[in-house]
Amino acid sequence: MTNPFEEILSRLDRIERIMLNHETRQPVTITPDPEKYLTIAQASDLLNLKIGTLYQLVHKGQLPNYKRGKHLSFKENELRQWMQAGRRQTMTEIQTEAINALSKH
């Protein structure tokens, strides 16, 4: 029969090793695949927009997309670029630009 205290110490050592191994692991970074095609549902999740809104943007020609028959798809990198193009400047950035433009003249 094994000593229950030895069993407890053994298990605690094992748990400690698992925890230390977990803490020293490097985080996994996932880089987007520039050639990855997304469905309308995946694009909706990526852009945080409703599917109906995406269809409206596609219909207006405002959102880059690919259509083969009835199948609508989107390239992930193009959607990310589309989002980035809609970035608005902060007041600080606008003021800095104005100061720089005035100082040149």
Provide tags for this entry:
3 strands; flat; Arc Repressor Mutant, subunit A; mainly alpha; three-stranded antiparallel beta sheet; 105 residues
Explain this structure to me?
The protein is mostly helical. The chain has a single domain (32-105), classed as Arc Repressor Mutant, subunit A, CATH 1.10.10. The protein is 59% helix and 10% strand. It is built from five helices and three strands. Strands 1-3-2 form a three-stranded antiparallel β-sheet. The longest helix is centred in the first third of the chain and has 21 residues, at 4-24. The model has no long low-confidence stretch (mean pLDDT 84).
Helix content: 55-70%
Q: Which fold name corresponds to the CATH topology?
A: Arc Repressor Mutant, subunit A
Radius of gyration: 26 Å
- What is the CATH class name? Mainly Alpha
Count of beta strands = 3
Low-confidence stretches: none
Average residue pLDDT: 84
State the major sheet. Answer: 3 strands, antiparallel
The oligomeric status of these chains comes to single chain
CATH architecture: Orthogonal Bundle
Number of domains: 1
Given helix and strand content, the structural type is mainly alpha
Span from first to last CA? 90 Å
Element-level helix/strand string? HEHHEEHH
Strand ordering within the main sheet: 1-3-2
Number of contiguous helices: 5
Strand residues, percent = 5-15%
Summarize the SSE layout with pairings.
Blueprint: H1 4-24, E1 37-38, H2 40-47, H3 51-59, E2 66-68, E3 71-75, H4 76-85, H5 91-104
Antiparallel strand pairs: 1-3, 2-3
